[in-house]
Amino acid sequence: MTRKIKGILFDLGDTLIDFAHVSMSALFKQGAQLGYKYLQEIGKDLPGFRTFHYRQLWAIRWNYIKAHVTGREFNSMDVMSHFAEKYGYQLTDEENLELAWRFYTPLSKATILVPGAVETLETLTNQGLEIGLVSNTFLPKSVLDRHLDLVSLGDLIPTRIYSSDVIHRKPHPKIFELALKKIGLQAENTMFVGNSLKPDIAGPQRAGMITVLRDLTGRGKKSRIKPDHILTDITELP
Questions:
Q1: pLDDT band at 2 (very low <50, low <70, confident <90, very high)
Q2: Other beta carbons less than 10 A from residue 32's beta carbon
Q3: Is 53 helix (H, G, I), strand (E, B) or coil?
Q4: What is the chain's Cα-based Rg?
Q5: Is 117 left (phi over 0), alpha (psi -120 to 50) or beta?
Q6: How deeply is 73 buried, as exposed, middle or buried, from its count of CB atoms within 10 A (0-12, 13-18, 19+)?
Q7: Which residue(s) pair with 214 in the sheet?
Q8: Distance from the Cα of residue 115 to its chain's centroid
Q9: Do 196 and 217 meet the contact criterion of CB atoms below 8 Å apart?
Q10: HSE of 91 in the Cβ direction (CA atoms, 13 Å)?
Q11: Which of 184, 130, 181, 137 is nearest to 162 (CA)?
Q12: Residue 198: closest CA among 218, 217, 177, 220
């Protein structure tokens, strides 16, 4: 039976935006340097940079491992707030968000917009399809929204679900239920496009969606998890 597609949900990293193969530890240190400088500029009393850097790094790493084991996401804003409280300074919500952006800036500069992503989303929107995003991330919503705006994707993705906001990580069924409810569609009329087999294929399939794997390595044909469709170029999607 042919199912009418009324909407498409996308993963973000390595689906619409490619993350360069760089040292995440090096990028985190660069982000910590920018964050440290920002806190100094707004007059916060800080420990030495080494302490500032490594304690936040290990806190993020520990929470990241825990999130993968439990399937429940954390928000890096909470880690930063806890650090600030421990060292006796306070941040407004605006300052905390700016700090999070400073930490993320080096990574954002290491990313590349997938060729044809903007044109593809424009075509799909013009075809009358609802467009949304479901991303596993510990980053706050405002940081990723800011990045999407910088690469001209913001206006093209009106529905956005981040695990840092909703706790549940893909492939947990709850995050897909929330996305479908927000986009206003039934699973059988929705397609999911991503690059990871378990979160982006197995999860949406269990939810009843049609799945598409962006596969640049050929692993989709070898895996026990079978996507409904495979593509290498996002412009093939329309």
A1: confident
A2: 20
A3: helix
A4: 19
A5: alpha
A6: buried
A7: 231
A8: 18
A9: no
A10: 28
A11: 137
A12: 220
* Alpha carbon 19 to chain centroid, angstroms: 11
Within 13 Å and on the Cβ side, how many CA atoms surround 9? 37
State the greatest distance between any 2 C-alpha atoms of the chain, in Å, as a whole number: 64
CA distances from 141 to 135, 144, 219 (A): 10, 5, 31
pLDDT digits (tens, 9 = 90+) for 26-84: 999 999 999 999 999 999 999 999 999 999 999 999 999 999 999 999 999 999 999 99
The CA-based angle 16-105-32, given to 5 degrees, is 135
User: For residue 140, which of 174, 97, 195, 110 has the smallest C-alpha distance?
Assistant: 97
> Tens digit of pLDDT for each residue in 198-223?
999 999 999 999 999 999 888 888 88
DSSP output for 166-217: HSB-TTSHHHHHHHHHHHT--GGGEEEEES-HIIIIIHHHHHT-EEEEE-SS
Query: Do strands 111-113 and 17-19 pair parallel, antiparallel, or not at all (unpaired)?
Result: antiparallel
The model's pTM is: 0.94
The C-alpha angle 160, 221, 125, rounded to 5 degrees, equals 30
What b/e string do you get for 192-210 counting C-beta neighbours within 10 Å, with b at 16 or more? bbbbbbebbbbbbbebebb
Q: Which positions ≥6 away from 32 have C-beta within 8 Å?
A: 49, 52, 53, 56, 57, 103
